[in-house]
Amino acid sequence: MQEKKNGVKRLLNAIEQNIDEKNIEILAKLLNYHIPQLKVDIEAISLVTIENR
To answer: What is the domain extent for residue 39?
Structure first.
């Protein structure tokens, strides 16, 4: 069960640390996401606490 939590943390950290203006457009298209909202949501990653259920 612990790996599930760590996997989510890895994914969110990778997104947060590696996003830039060029690839945020690509990610937004892949996720069908509005770019300004995606930027806000990525900035909020650092505020998220991940818990196993």
So the answer is: 1-52
- Grouping H, G, I as helix, E, B as strand and the rest as coil, residue 52 is coil
Q: In whole angstroms, what is the distance from residue 17 CA to residue 26 CA?
A: 16
How many Å is the Cα radius of gyration of the chain? 12
CA atoms of 49 and 35, how far apart (whole Å): 24
* Average pLDDT value over all residues in the chain: 90
Q: What's the rounded Cα separation, in Å, for the pair 29 and 16?
A: 17
pLDDT band at 5 (very low <50, low <70, confident <90, very high): confident
> Which whole number is the average pLDDT over 34-51?
92
